[in-house]
Design brief:
This protein is α+β, with helices and mostly antiparallel strands and about 220 residues long. It has helices at about 1-20, 90-225, and strands spanning about 25-30, 35-40, 45-50, 55-60, 65-70, 75-80, 85. The chain has a domain at about 1-90: SH3 type barrels.
Length: about 220
Amino acid sequence: MRNVVLGFCFFLTLFLVAAGSVQAETRYVSDQVLITLRRGPGTEYKILKNLKTGTPVEVLEDGETWLMVRHQDGTEGYVLRQYLTGELPKTIVIARLEKEKERLKNRISELGTRAQTWTAEKEELQRQVSDVQQAFKKEKSDRLTVSKDYQNLQEAAKNVSELLAERERLKAENEKYAGELQELRGENEKLLRKAIVKWFLAGGGVLLVGWLMGKSSRTKKRGFS
């Protein structure tokens, strides 16, 4: 970052020097505490102004010792050549660097704030993605559960079908056996009636024979008398 700032200042200096060469040359009071702007090219002339370090002046006439210059407020006079320089004074460079430093500091702070916002947004997006993943897993688990339940229902339905078929078979057998039982009961009743008739007839015959035998015995007894 420091190299970028120094490079910026270097190109800015070149730009200012190039611009000054096209128009009237601008020079700056070099790194001196205070110099004088005089009415003429000599220390015997009246001091018009005191110029601080970094004060820009426009060069009107170039001499070996003294330069005729114009101040920003329009005042024209002479200053010693040795106190002027075409380069930006260190104070201006430092001031500009400090200003640029402050701007970059503010920029870094702004980017830091944005980074915090982006971090918060990133965390929120990660949370949302996690929620979606959890929901997807739950949905997948629920789908597997439903699939298993469906398979169980299919098996149960199959078993129910088999049970219904078995019930119908048993019902048919039960009806068959019930019919056979009814027939057996009918035959049994017929046999019972026949047996009763036979028993009745047999019993009646015995009684008749006994009665006849008794009558015959009484008749014989009367003949002997």
